[in-house]
Amino acid sequence: MIGCKKKEDKTMKKTLFAISAIAVLLGFTACTSDEIVEPQVSDKTITISASTESNATRTALADDGEGGYDVVWSTGDVITIGDKTFTLSSTPGTTKGTFTGKDPANGKFDVWYGISSASLPAMQTYKAGEITNSPMHASVDITDGVASIVDFKNLCGLFKLSLKGTATVKSITISANEPVAGEFTVGTDGGAVLEESADDKSITLDCGDGVTLTESATDFFIAMPAGTYTGVSITLTDDAGKVCVKKLSSTKNLVITRSNITPASFTASTFMPTITASSPVGTIGMLDGREGIVVDFGGSIGKVVVATMNVGATSVDYATAADNATCYGVQYNAQDASDPSKMGLADGWRAPKQAELKALYELSGGAWSAADYDNHKAAGYVWTIGTGENQNTLFLPAAGYGNAYQRG
User: Fold this and answer.
1) Which of 53, 67, 106, 260 has the greatest number of CB atoms lying within 10 Å of its CB?
2) DSSP characters for 162-210?
């Protein structure tokens, strides 16, 4: 795998790219027109000299404000040409390395690091202190066993998550409205440009047996193709199968730039169970990226999951809300209600039907609450849902009323 060394410490291995403030998305143009040929059979052993991409702004990568990091090759690193692999045979810890493998005969070939073909995987692997998911691409000319120097380009940028907490994280999934993995072509700047057929809208970082968080931030790196991503959610799964979900607000996008790091950080403090068909009534958990509570409406409707916040709401603290939308959510019309995507809802979520609203109103255990309910300074209707350890409350605030009429 690729490692890196801090200029003051020749043995430290940490990251791959130069960090910078991410504000501008690099554009992509047409792919290179050089013809790439398939390798031919040969038993001759050759060596190839390969260098990592120059980090002109590497001092910006320093996490302590003192110096920076250089990209270096590590023991066991492998590059791929067609179905042939070349293994690092020179001394590790330098930005330039020599790789040895079987001669693929004469021609011009694609060279890959981290992947073996033009397809970005939707599953990546965590390794402490190193980045194993940062794919690179180059081309090489080979004539009579003599190869040109290989100058690698980073195909992606890196999303760096710095997490604090006490949980043991088994996996991290990044989801967006746009594709983040799949087959690609190589743009003229060296970046991966996803094909129109690419439809993987999530990437998962497999953390193996788990990474236990502490009060000091632990860094996780996820390679993503350059682009502007909307509707981004980050799902952490712990060793008990519970999840912690963080979402970017609807006004913020995740911008990834090739060969740069986009940082983010938070404390993973609240993990909830994943709601399933067998979850008891009253369970509060996560379903398709949204928090909800399991409610039994009875009759032909049966169990449903009701979101714990309205569409567009980000808080239930009515006393300190900056605006009504923060807690009460946003208004939507009947046409939007029939199309969950127009309401910004993920697959599996929708507006309640008339029969469900009626069933909720008639649900036993409900009562009107005065304006001081739970010290939130909001009046509304409250139900006690579930029993025992699964007993919780469902509160619908009285946010006002509206009149509707139909012509003709």
Assistant:
1) 260
2) EEEES-EEEEEEEE-SS--BEEEEEBTTS-EEE-TT--B-EEEEEEEEE
Q: Tell me the pLDDT tens digit for each residue of 251-271.
A: 789 999 998 889 999 999 889
Three-point CA angle 267, 25, 268, nearest 5°: 5
135 burial class (0-12, 13-18, 19+ CB within 10 angstroms)? buried
Identify any residues that bridge with 185 across adjacent strands, giving them in sequence order: 193
List, as one string, the DSSP characters of 288-301: TTEEEEEEE--TTT
| Residues paired with 195 in a beta bridge | none
CB 90 within 8 A of CB 100: no
Mean pLDDT of 142-169: 92
State the amino acid at position 156 in one-letter form: C
Q: Please give the share of the chain, as a percent, with pLDDT higher than 90.
A: 40
Strand order in the sheet with 182-186: 119-120, 182-186, 192-194
User: Alpha-carbon distance 251 to 231, whole Å?
Assistant: 9
Q: pLDDT tens-digit profile of 376-408?
A: 667 888 888 999 988 988 888 876 665 555 554
Residue 34 phi/psi, 5-degree rounding, is -60, 135
**Radius of gyration of the chain, Cα coordinates, nearest whole angstrom:** 26
